[in-house]
Every structure is written in structure tokens, then in C-alpha cells.
Design goal:
alpha/beta, Aspartate Aminotransferase, domain 1, Aspartate Aminotransferase, domain 2, 4-stranded mixed sheet, 2 domains, 7-stranded mixed sheet
């Protein structure tokens, strides 16, 4: 493929000019491996993009998609339905924490975040508390890239260019990460539960009567695997209950097995009011997201004449038939292959191997939960992010795909990863670290 043919595509979250000078093209995938344009087999250490925990091109999902697209490729999403969407809704709600009974389909995690925020505001208005419009996010949080999600998100580079047009009425509690107090914690840090009290500070500042919802990731992925301190999420739940604030868990990454349970809420033993999902909903095969709500949230909006629309919100592709078919096959495989139990079975091995990198050059922290792992590197003076990207490139050239977010190496292995595969991933990172300047 010539360089000229690469130019029309503006790639997301990519250094476009550098990529197009030396493209890394993937042409096929199967199981735990990609095939690149040179025919090399690359071990995928990131499960797509947190998406494909069951492996690439799982034959049952492929068959379901092929059958569905040949039967019902699309159906109108407004005022009409199709069986697959209703069946998938039932399956997902069946996995959800107690009290979650309804699901609203979107097409991505970004759309799910904005949908959840809108539902929270509509909920309070329907209950006669229309002043509750303020939204609270968290520093270092990531909730997609739409205006709502970017506004409640707390990743500075995502916000910088658009700061003047963030939606009004948003504030942030402080993040939970402290190298001095948490470095090299295994699983949940024991320090940091008190940081939840920062929500009380914002309640005092804005008054609870003006606050609609708090949105947080149970365990943050994109900002570098930030695991909640023991007791932290519990305290957030208590404060939200005290002040009538809805608690939203963004589980786009943590749902469907990534942390060893169907939902992060179940892993951490804290139940929110609203949950957003995507990625593992269809094993990444067809774009799809969703928002799960408790029955009380849904019923608050079921008022007025029955023939009127209750929530003026939705997408052309909400509950898309082909995506729903992929989702149904994915849910079936999770059950048949004991996928969530698989994660629990290998989590300890992954943790042990990951923390063996502690003594390697430039490593200043290692964090993990379930099959989420982060290795933070000391930044190169004057070139933040350079070391992380160099590790990414060295691993790619050595046949292993990982991800770097600045100087944080991120890992997200497949649920069915073998010990040999995990060892290979860690050894490849080790060699890359030792070769760094």
C-alpha cells in the first residue's frame, strides 16, 4: 500500500504523520494473535482495545453475525423493535447487580456516558427536583470523547483544546492516585479511602439540591490502571445516598469479566444507580454500548399518557440487529466458557508476573486488578511519553502488541490466556525496558 493511499484516513488517538511514515498495518486476527501486513503473527497483549476478551474472530460470534446480517440487517429503532434487542436486554440485565432491570442501547461507550448523564438529569426533573443539573466527575477520569463525557472526564489532554466549550455545571472530585502512598500495590491499595470525602466538599460548595450525579470508573483504565482504594467506593455510595445524588459507574472497561466478575460493581461490592457498558458487550465485534438503570430510575420517567415518548433521546443504531446478535453470542460464550471464572483463575499468575518488572529500569509503579495491568515509567527529561512509546514500538517489533498511555504501559490479556502467553508478554516488556535510554 502506497503512502498516498494512507492519507485520507484521519486516525483516532494516533500520531497520524508519524504513523503514515512507518505504518503498522494489521490484516487479520484469530484467537490471541494478529497478522500484520508482513505476515508476522503478533501476540495481542491488550485484547483489541480492552474489547475482545474472548479472543479474535470467535467462531460462534462470527456465525451469529453472518446469520443475522443475512436475515435482518437493520430495523427502524424508533417505535419499532426486533427480537434480538429484547433478548439481549434480558440477558445483560440477568447478569447485572440486584435492582438493575432496564437497559438502553447505544453504539459506544462515549454515547453511553452521555446517555447516562442525560438520564440522571431527566430522572431528577421527573421527580420534581429540576434544580439537580450539576454533574460531578473525577480528575483523571475517562468517560469517552463526546461533549458530556469529556466535560465530566478529567484527562487534561482530552480537555485542553475544548476547555472553552465544555458543558456548564460540571465539577470534579480529586483523583485517588498517590505514588508516595500506593506505589506497587497489588490489587486494591489500602491507603486512600478518605479521598472519597472530597465529594462532601463539592456538596458544601454547590449544595446537594443542585447536584444530579457523580460518575466514576470503578477501576480506571485509560488513565493508567488506577485501582480504587479499599473502602473508597463504599464511601462514595454512602455520600451519594446521604445527599440524594445518583451514582454512575462507567464500566465500559470493567464490565463483562475484565475484573473477574460480570460487573466491577460486583467485584468491589458496591452497587451504583446507573451503569454504562460497551466493549465486552459484543466482544468488540460490532460497535455497541448500553446504559443499565435501576427500576426506580426507569419508573420515575414512566409518567404521563402512555402514547407519549418518555425520554427524547436515542440513536439510529440503538439496539442494532447485527450488534445484538453479536452480543447474544458473546453472552452465551461467557457462560459456556466460564469466562469470568477464567479471569479469577489466572489473575494471581498475571499479578505475580507483572510485579516481577518492579526491579527493571525506569519502573516507578505497577498497578493491577483482574486482568488489567499498568507499569508506570519515569518520564524522560524534556520528553514525557517518549519512553512509553518506545516500549510500545519495541514490543511491536518483537511480536507483542501492548498499549502505552504516555509513560504508562497498559496490559489487558485475554480471559483464556495461557501462562506461557503471559510470560511472553512480560518478558517482551522486560527486554524493551532494558534497552531503553
Amino acid at each position: 500500500m502506497s503512502t498516498e493511499n494512507l492519507e485520507p484516513y484521519w486516525m483516532p488517538f494516533t500520531s497520524n504523520r508519524a504513523f503514515k511514515k512507518a505504518p503498522r498495518m494489521l490484516t487479520a486476527a484469530k484467537g490471541h494473535y494478529y497478522t500484520d501486513a508482513d505476515g508476522r503473527q503478533l501476540l495481542d497483549g491488550f485484547s483489541g482495545l480492552w474489547t475482545c476478551g474472548l479472543g479474535h474472530c470467535h467462531p460462534k460470534i462470527v456465525a451469529a453475525v453472518q446469520s443475522q446480517v443475512a436475515t435482518l440487517d437493520y430495523s427502524m429503532a424508533f417505535q419499532m423493535g426486533h427480537p434480538q434487542a429484547f433478548e439481549l436486554a434480558e440477558k445483560v440485565v440477568g447478569l447485572a447487580p440486584e435492582g438493575f432491570t432496564r437497559i438502553f442501547f447505544t453504539n459506544s461507550g462515549s454515547e453511553a456516558a452521555d446517555t447516562a448523564l442525560k438520564i440522571s438529569i431527566a430522572y431528577h426533573r421527573a421527580r420534581g427536583e429540576a434544580t439537580r443539573t450539576r454533574l460531578i466527575g473525577r480528575e483523571k477520569g475517562y468517560h469517552g470523547v463526546n461533549f458530556g463525557g469529556t466535560s465530566v472526564g478529567g484527562m487534561p489532554l482530552n480537555r485542553k483544546v475544548f476547555s472553552a466549550v465544555m458543558i456548564p455545571g460540571v465539577d470534579h472530585i480529586r483523583h485517588t492516585h498517590s505514588l508516595a502512598d500506593m506505589a506497587f500495590s497489588k490489587g486494591q491499595p489500602t491507603w486512600g479511602a478518605h479521598l472519597a470525602e472530597d465529594l462532601e466538599r463539592l456538596v458544601q460548595l454547590h449544595d446537594a439540591s443542585n447536584i444530579s450525579a457523580l460518575i466514576v470508573e470503578p477501576a480506571s483504565g485509560s488513565s493508567g490502571i488506577l485501582v480504587p482504594p479499599v473502602g473508597y467506593l463504599d464511601r462514595l455510595r454512602e455520600i451519594c445516598d446521604k445527599h440524594g445524588i445518583l451514582l454512575i459507574f462507567d464500566e465500559v472497561i470493567t464490565a463483562f469479566g475484565r475484573v473477574g466478575a460480570a460487573f466491577g460493581a460486583q467485584r468491589f461490592g458496591v452497587t451504583p444507580d446507573i451503569i454504562t457498558v460497551a466493549k465486552g458487550l459484543t466482544n468488540g465485534v460490532i460497535p455497541m454500548g448500553a446504559v443499565l438503570v435501576k427500576e426506580s430510575v426507569y419508573q420515575a420517567l414512566m409518567s404521563g399518557p402512555e402514547n407519549l415518548i418518555e425520554l427524547f433521546h436515542g440513536y439510529t443504531y440503538s439496539g442494532h440487529p447485527v450488534a445484538a446478535a453479536a452480543g447474544l453470542a458473546t453472552m452465551q460464550i461467557y457462560q459456556e466458557e466460564r469466562s469470568f471464572a477464567q479471569v479469577c483463575d489466572i489473575e494471581g499468575t498475571f499479578e505475580t508476573l507483572l510485579h516481577e518488572l518492579k526491579a527493571e529500569p525506569h519502573v516507578i509503579d505497577i498497578r493491577n486488578i483482574g486482568l488489567m495491568g499498568g507499569v508506570e515509567l519515569a518520564p524522560r527529561t524534556g520528553s514525557p511519553g517518549a519512553r512509553g512509546f518506545e516500549v510500545f514500538m519495541r514490543c511491536f517489533n518483537d511480536g507483542v502488541v501492548i498499549r502505552n498511555s504516555g509513560d504508562i504501559i497498559q496490559l489487558s490479556p485475554f480471559f483464556g490466556s495461557t501462562e506461557d502467553e503471559l510470560i511472553r508478554i512480560i518478558d517482551t516488556i522486560r527486554r524493551a525496558l532494558r534497552a531503553l535510554a
